[in-house]
Design a protein that fits this description.
Layout: H1 2-13, E1 29-30, E2 52-58, H2 65-72, E3 81-87, H3 91-99, E4 105-109, H4 112-119, E5 125-133, E6 140-145, H5 146-150, E7 163-166, H6 172-182, E8 192-195, H7 199-208, E9 213-217, H8 220-227, E10 230-235, E11 242-249, H9 251-255, H10 257-278, H11 287-300, H12 304-307, H13 322-334, H14 344-347, H15 351-360
Parallel strand pairs: 1-3, 2-3, 2-4, 7-8, 7-9
Antiparallel strand pairs: 4-11, 5-11, 6-9, 6-10
Helix pairs in contact: 2-10, 2-11, 3-4, 10-11, 10-15
């Protein structure tokens, strides 16, 4: 009960869309509160020759690489779209804003808040993959603070009774850690969760020893490990497979089939560019590799050589895995983070992706 009350309180705090917005990103990234009706919902296309505006809520992390590429390579502009990127600190804020039609598109992670919003009738529709936790990559690290490491915290089993830094109850970190704990005959009830709201706060808490362990995504993972203030317990990617990051459409934007399909066409084109030229560490003989890395570096404010080590796997066809999403829902329900009935098959709408593939060709 206490865990569920914490989750409910966290969701309530996220009720004001955009409060964690940073305005970070490239030159075309929109700043501000993220509030107000997006014009992408208003009409079926560009009026009077002007581009139709579409708002996208995301985070300024490497995991949003296809979004950054589609914007800077002009894929959306070529389709008559003016895409405005609005950056936030947490997935919950983006979900709330998208379900309320304040944002047209959500580009973030699958969390308990997404399922709870759906169960309460506030819907957003999962339309494409944006990133997967996948074996062999090093995108998410389970780390111990230096103090905990010196005290003997070296394995997942050693986390029993320890303080775990999290953004909020029901976050993607809960799912990832929960799977790893279950593999060691433990559960989230066996740890002490410390809500810290943002990844930067979690990293700082690891450095100071305020928490004993945390899951850190890139670039925070490499930064803390290199500093010696955190120590690697395990790469999450080698222990969990999850369709963790997705694109989702607001109800109003989903109803605008023309714009929604054009947006997806530009996104899919960027996903293909990402897989052909960026992900997988392509050689120096590929000029598009450098171009792609430089674009991602601009938005994430990191050197391109660093970006190269932090890339996340995206399905080459941007297809989501409903079965894996169903598994995540069941986990959140069993942990008490999600109440009510949710039909994952109703949440997933791949029609726009199919239309985009027809336009671009297989």
């Amino acid at each position: 009960m206490r865990r569920w009350m914490c989750a409910a309180a966290a969701l309530a705090l996220l009720g004001v869309a955009g409060c964690g917005q940073t305005g970070a990103g490239g030159g075309n990234t929109a700043a501000g509160s993220g509030q107000g009706q997006p014009t992408g919902n208003a009409g079926g296309g560009a009026a009077g020759g002007s581009a139709a505006t579409i708002t996208v809520g995301t985070t300024p992390l490497v995991s949003s690489a296809p979004i950054f590429l589609a914007e800077d390579l002009g894929y959306w502009k070529d389709l008559g779209l003016d895409v405005q990127l609005k950056t936030y600190e947490s997935a919950g804020e983006i979900d709330v804003a998208t379900a309320a039609n304040t944002l047209d598109v959500s580009a973030t992670g699958i969390t308990a808040s997404l399922f709870n919003l759906w169960a309460s009738g506030k819907k957003e529709y999962i339309v494409a993959d944006k990133g997967r936790i996948w074996p062999g990559q090093k995108f998410e690290a389970l780390v111990a603070s230096d103090q905990a490491w010196q005290a003997g915290v070296r394995t997942v089993a050693d986390l029993k009774g320890k303080r775990f830094g999290n953004t909020a109850a029901g976050s993607t970190f809960d799912y990832l850690l929960g799977v790893m704990l279950a593999n060691n005959h433990l559960s989230l009830k066996d740890i002490q969760e410390v809500p810290l709201h943002t990844t930067s706060n979690i990293a700082a808490a690891v450095e100071s020893g305020q928490v004993d362990a945390a899951i850190l995504p890139q670039p925070a993972a490499n930064k803390e490990l290199a500093s010696g203030k955190a120590h690697l317990i395990a790469w999450v990617d080698d222990n969990v497979k999850a369709d963790l990051l997705v694109l989702a459409y607001s109800p109003n934007f989903r109803a605008n089939s023309d714009l929604a399909t054009k947006f997806m066409e530009g996104y899919l084109k960027a996903v293909r560019f990402y897989n052909q030229h960026v992900f997988g560490n392509h050689g120096a003989d590929d000029p598009d590799s450098k171009k792609g890395l430089d674009i991602i570096a601009k938005y994430t404010k990191q050197p391109a050589d660093v970006v190269k080590t932090e890339l996340i796997y995206v399905d080459p066809n941007a297809e989501v895995d409903p079965e894996n999403i169903e598994n995540q829902l069941k986990f959140y329900q069993s942990a008490g983070f999600v109440k009510g009935d949710v039909d994952v098959r109703s949440m997933v709408d791949d029609s726009f992706l199919k239309q985009a593939r027809q336009k671009l060709g297989s």
